[in-house]
Design a protein that fits this description.
- The complex is a heterotetramer, with 2 copies of chain A (80 residues), 1 copy of chain B (733 residues) and 1 copy of chain C (222 residues).
- Chain A contains 2 helices and 3 strands.
- In chain A, strands 2-1-3 form a 3-stranded antiparallel β-sheet.
- Chain A has 80 residues and is of the alpha+beta class.
- In chain A, 35% of the residues lie in helices and 38% in strands.
- Helix content of chain B is 35%, strand content 23%.
- In chain B, the strands form 5 sheets. Chain B has a 7-stranded mixed β-sheet with strand order 8-10-7-11-9-12-13. A 7-stranded mixed β-sheet of chain B has the order 23-25-22-26-24-27-28, with helices on both faces.
- Chain B is globular and about 85 Å long.
- With 222 residues, chain C is an alpha/beta fold.
- Chain C has one domain: Rossmann fold.
- Chain C has 6 helices and 11 strands.
- In chain C, α1 packs across α6.
- The N and C termini of chain C lie close together (5 Å).
- The chains are: A alpha+beta (80), B alpha+beta (733), C alpha/beta (222).
- At the A-D interface, α1, β2 and α2 of A face α1, β2 and α2 of D.
- β2 of chain A pairs antiparallel with β2 of chain D.
- The complex binds adenosine-5'-diphosphate (ADP) and magnesium ion.
- Magnesium ion binds next to loops of chain B.
- Adenosine-5'-diphosphate binds next to β4, β5 and α16 of chain B.
Chain lengths: 80, 733, 222, 80
């Protein structure tokens, strides 16, 4: 089974990178671009076959390592 | 089995003649794998086929030289059982294609060259050349290259302590990224690459092999054209984390006596490292590719042999020592695999999936690689007549323009992205004449500098190369160090063009002459040729990286003025040579004339005198005069110390203030001492004169006005940030 | 004073900390490999700077999960002094021994230069040899030193006098909230800071204003 | 309109971060974890209302700035 984990900054946490990208896009003439936020995605291959178990295990990975929940939130997407 | 057509041979960068030679050496047609191996081993990058005959003319020995060119890096004795190990290498083409990763892997590669010999890297330098500041790609390349150098070096925990940055349109399509690594080892713990003996295990350590940079070595030897940007997937990604582990693991294993030979896998990876080890050891090597740790599936023998995956090493161990070595690499969580054995056949034999896929005599790959006496034309040296200039231009306005110009402005934007002080031994950070790094736990220190003035080399390759060596020697001297030896990085265009070959030959001869005269042998180096885009070559750029020794780091000079009221003395003759000067280019808008000639005897006499004063503890403030001339040098000293200067010349002529005559230094020292020093100089036959006195908050030249330091500093510091933030740049002529 | 320096894969200021501690305390510190499970019995644990695990994922995230950090947490809880410098500070926030987080520098570039700091709190085991308001000069060298915490946490840190070092006004190299350069935990035995006091202990290197930090610890702990 | 852009390394390009994350997860006892690759996600707010136009514009942003197409590939997801 494959999973994709999205880790993004919580609202209210400033994102200098996102800001810089937004700025650069505007400078390149992309005027329609408003707010930009950057996050991480992590693609994980799992030998686990059971969806529920995989989900629980991914949640534990996020809480323990993949996200810093002081500043980040996460979403898990299973791609069987 | 791929049939080898002339087309395939050409794609491998081999000429029809070279291919015939391969058939002769093998007594048969090579197979596709063997062709790949020959193509990288016989590439310019690995074989030095255009330059080898000329490089032999360089002085490479000296009483302190332990290892000259031929190994991974040069080794020089610095006393007390310590040795300094250093080398410079280019990563030009990869950095143009992907600046961050290209520069980063360049840093990683040169560090491996140094620690593979048993040294702990203690300092990094970088010599960078970019295109015109307003060229569309320049800003992107500068930011990527600088971030990449920092990204790798900072993670390794090795301070990056200096370098050079130039801008010139000739580098628009061919930037230069030359990185130098300096390491320290004990003289009785130096590791070489000769795989001696037969029946010894050949061991692979480090990262797994992927399809990275296949044909990178061949690419580095081919001229750029419009579609080489298509060769993109050959880019390698650096992994400084793994390299740091590899460094620590190698040093840990090196503390034992298990290693017979060790060699990093650089350009052409497994192929060149095994061939070189076998060649130097006079032995054969048999490898079983099935045992190579692999990152990707279904890799062919061709791909594995030519892969340039980074952070890998090849070692030959004493038989039976594998478990001990494996334990160390396991501790550092690195791959470890016995992939072969040394033999007495002098052949490189490669097995894969149960079959022999390549079998070649090692000498055919190395000794028998072609050496060319390429035809060359050395153009006549330009006439040393003074170029025309407007003698009525206001001096201070020109000074302000120069101090904020692309080649003379502060490089702070660059070096503040490099960890300059990690390892807690950096005594002089960037901004001075040479970086100074203490030998840990002692009062000795190394002085390091990288120098070359490409516009001089273009006008006169011989004099320009001499000047590069002299300036490097002078930069070591200016901090009080005794120059020890140099590494070089010879960056040129296409050697198959006689005029470019003429620049190469002239450059090498110039380096040779200066190094001989200054007892400054060449102990390592690198050539990067074919730096051309659509037939437009770069300026000839033979970068010189020098290392010197301060016996007592407490007796050292820096450029910053330290006291108001010090007397300013000028060492060396000032004739006002404006040919090829920055003044001529930036203010008059012309690049013309001959470069300033270097009188090597005067250079040595003046330098030895200045160094003597520093060593005696009588002089702590020195700056050599280079780009921009006398007034620029004084201004740099004033800005560094936040103390101004008042200068009195008999005749404040533009040529005297901005000419770039060689062999000169500015000294600042208390007035009472100055009188004595003037007397001693006279006795020693060293030309010396008084310039004025330090003090105040401006640079003032009698008869030519003054300029506040604050204004000069603003100009000096603002150009680079303005370039990089995309702000308005001051006009360039 | 007995001390220990924790070494992670790709720590790289471990030797700098070792050198400063050996020289100033007169006793070489224990160098403790991350895979070990227990820190020896010491008065001070230093988590040095560097790029543990390459700074991959997030700076300090992987080191915070290491075996040895479990024991460091236990010892910190028991009152042993812990000093995290640079990457060490990041590891301490990632292990929640200190509040907040260190984000990418506001201008997105690695920054390496000396900075001027103001000692904002001298009533601590780490700073008693300084006086409040004193200016010191330490090098910084980091890409992610931009201290972030929510307003409530920041107010609390200030209210409890737990902000020990601040970047001098106008010299904030990374965009840190309220110019914060170093903070204490609630029990005041754990200090995390981005600047490098261990690189400011030798006159040859330009500044000795880091020495009083180690001398404060000697005074308090021996 | 909102868009999310995923930027990931091309196949075969070494991903040191992904490797280290996978390793760390294994060490934490997540044995089911195999290959891990890390990428970026970029959330962009756009004033553009037309899907086709937005897509074309995002593609241009990726080619010009968001992805380093020497080593990275990208996917675009519109979230109207
Ligand atoms: N790429 C770089 N990285 C670090 N330091 C640099 C770099 N380029 C220039 N510098 C530093 O800026 C200062 C001025 O450089 P340069 O004008 O080339 O010196 P010099 O004329 O004495 O050779 C030197 O201290 C040098 O080390
Ligand atoms: Mg100089």
């Amino acid at each position: 089974m494959k999973a994709r984990v999205f880790v993004t900054l919580k609202n209210g946490v400033l994102d200098p990178q996102g800001k810089a990208i937004g700025h650069a896009l505007n400078n390149l003439g992309f005027d329609a671009v408003g707010n930009v936020r950057q996050g991480k995605l992590i693609d994980i291959e799992l030998t686990e076959q059971d969806e529920a178990k995989a989900h629980a295990s991914l949640k534990a990975m996020c809480e323990k390592l993949l996200a810093n929940t002081v500043i980040e939130k996460y979403e898990i997407e299973l791609r069987p | 089995m791929t049939v080898i057509t002339p087309e395939i041979v050409r794609e491998h960068g081999l000429s029809p003649d070279e291919y015939d030679r391969i058939k002769q050496l093998l007594n048969r047609e090579p197979n596709f794998v063997e062709l790949g191996v020959f193509s990288v081993m016989w590439s310019e990058h690995c074989s030095y086929k255009s330059t080898r005959a000329h490089l032999r003319k360089l002085p490479t020995t000296g009483p302190l030289v332990i290892q000259g060119p031929g190994e991974n890096a040069g080794v020089v004795d610095i006393g007390d059982g310590d040795a300094v190990i250093f080398k410079m290498e280019s990563h030009n083409h990869p950095s143009f294609i992907e600046p961050y990763q290209g520069a980063a892997t360049g840093v990683g590669g040169i560090m491996r060259d140094v620690f593979t010999m048993g040294a702990r890297p203690v300092a990094m330098m970088n010599a960078l050349r970019f295109g015109a500041p307003d060229h569309a790609k320049t800003r992107h390349l500068v930011s990527g290259v600088v971030a990449g150098i920092g990204g790798y070096g900072n993670c390794m925990g090795v301070p990056t302590v200096g370098g050079e940055v130039n801008f010139h349109p000739s580098y628009n399509g061919n930037i230069l990224v030359n990185a130098m690594c300096v390491g320290l080892a004990r003289t009785d713990k130096i590791f070489l690459s000769a795989a001696k003996g037969s029946g010894n295990p050949v061991v692979y350590v480090g990262s797994k092999t992927g399809r990275d940079g296949i044909h990178g070595a061949t690419m580095a030897s081919a001229e750029f054209n419009e579609d080489s940007e298509e060769k993109r997937p050959t880019v390698q990604v650096g992994d400084p984390f793994t390299e740091k582990l590899l460094l620590e693991a190698c040093l840990e294993l090196m503390a034992t006596d298990a290693i017979i030979a060790i060699q990093d896998m650089g350009a052409a990876g497994l192929t060149s490292s095994s061939a070189e080890m076998g060649d130097k050891g006079g032995s054969g090597i048999e490898l079983n590719l099935d045992r190579v740790p692999q990152r990707e599936e279904n890799m062919t023998a061709y791909e594995m042999l030519l892969s340039e995956s980074q952070e890998r090493m090849l070692m030959v161990l004493k038989p039976g020592r594998e478990p001990e070595a494996e334990r160390i690499f396991a501790k550092w969580e690195l791959d470890f695999a016995v992939i072969g054995v040394t033999t007495d056949t002098k052949r490189l034999v490669i097995k894969h999936k149960g079959a022999v896929v390549a079998d070649m005599p090692i000498t055919a790959l190395s000794d028998e690689a072609p050496v060319y006496q390429r035809p060359f034309e050395r153009k006549a040296a330009p006439k040393a007549t003074q170029p025309a200039f407007d003698a009525a231009r206001p001096v201070m306005a020109s000074l302000l323009r120069l101090i904020g110009s692309p080649d003379l402005c502060s490089r702070r934007w660059v070096w503040e992205q490099y960890d300059t002080t990690v390892m807690a031994d950096t005594v002089q950070v960037p901004g001075g004449d040479a970086a100074v790094v203490r030998v840990h736990g002692s009062n000795k220190a190394l002085a390091i500098s990288c120098d070359v003035t490409p516009r001089y080399c273009k006008a006169d390759p011989f004099e320009g190369a001499k000047q590069a060596v002299a300036e490097c020697w002078r930069n070591m001297t200016a901090v009080g160090a005794t120059p020890l030896a140099v590494t070089d990085n010879l960056n040129f265009g296409n050697p198959q063009r006689p005029e470019i070959m003429g620049e190469i030959v002239g450059g090498i001869d110039g380096i040779g002459e200066a190094c001989r005269a200054l007892s400054f042998p060449v102990v390592s180096g690198n050539c990067s040729l074919y730096n051309e885009t659509n037939g437009e070559p770069i300026l000839p750029t033979p970068a010189i990286g020098g290392v010197g020794l301060l016996k007592d780091v407490r007796r050292m000079a820096t450029v910053a003025f330290k006291r108001a009221g010090d007397a300013l003395l000028l060492v060396g003759d000032t004739k006002g040579h404006l040919g090829q000067s920055i003044y001529l280019r930036e203010i008059e808008g012309r690049e013309e004339g001959a470069p300033p000639p270097v009188d090597l005897a005067a250079e040595k006499r003046n330098g030895d005198f200045v160094r003597g004063l520093i060593e005696q503890g009588r002089l702590d403030t020195v700056h050599d005069i280079s780009d921009g001339g006398l007034l620029v040098a004084i201004t740099e000293m004033a800005m560094a110390g936040s103390i101004g200067a008042e200068l009195t010349f008999g005749d404040a002529a533009i040529a005297l203030l901005f000419g770039e005559d060689q062999g000169r230094y500015i000294l600042a020292l208390p007035a009472s001492e100055a009188a004595r020093v003037l007397g001693e100089a006279k006795a020693a036959g060293v030309s010396m004169s008084s310039l004025g006195v330090t003090g105040g908050d401006r640079i003032a030249v009698k008869g030519a006005g003054d300029a506040p330091l604050a204004k000069l500093r603003a100009a000096h510091e603002s150009w680079f940030p303005a370039l990089m933030s995309g702000g308005e740049l001051p006009p360039v002529n | 004073m007995k001390s220990a320096v924790i070494v992670f894969p790709a720590s790289n200021c471990d030797r700098d900390a070792q050198t400063a501690l050996a020289e100033i305390t007169g006793t070489p510190p224990h160098m403790v490999w991350h895979a070990e499970t227990e820190v020896p019995d010491v008065d001070l644990i230093v988590i040095p700077g560097g790029f543990s695990y390459g700074d991959y994922l997030r700076c300090g995230a992987m080191a915070a999960q290491s075996h040895i950090m479990r024991d460091v947490m236990k010892k910190a809880e028991a009152g042993v002094a812990v000093l995290g410098i640079c990457n060490g500070f990041q590891i301490l926030t990632e292990s929640h021994l200190l509040p907040g987080a260190l984000l990418r520098n506001a201008d997105l570039k690695f920054v390496s230069r000396p900075v001027e700091l103001v000692v904002d709190e001298s009533q601590s085991a780490f700073t008693r040899k300084y006086s409040k308001g004193e200016r010191v000069r330490f090098p910084v060298a980091h890409g992610e030193g931009n201290y972030f915490a929510d307003e409530e946490t920041l107010n609390r840190l200030e209210g409890e006098d737990r902000v020990v070092f601040r970047y001098a006004p106008g010299d904030n190299p990374n965009g840190s909230a309220r110019n914060i350069a170093g903070i204490l935990n609630e029990k005041r035995n754990v200090l995390g800071m981005m600047p490098h006091p261990e690189r400011a202990c030798d006159p040859l290197l330009g500044s000795t204003t880091g020495r009083p930090l180690f001398q404060s610890l000697i005074d308090t702990l021996s």
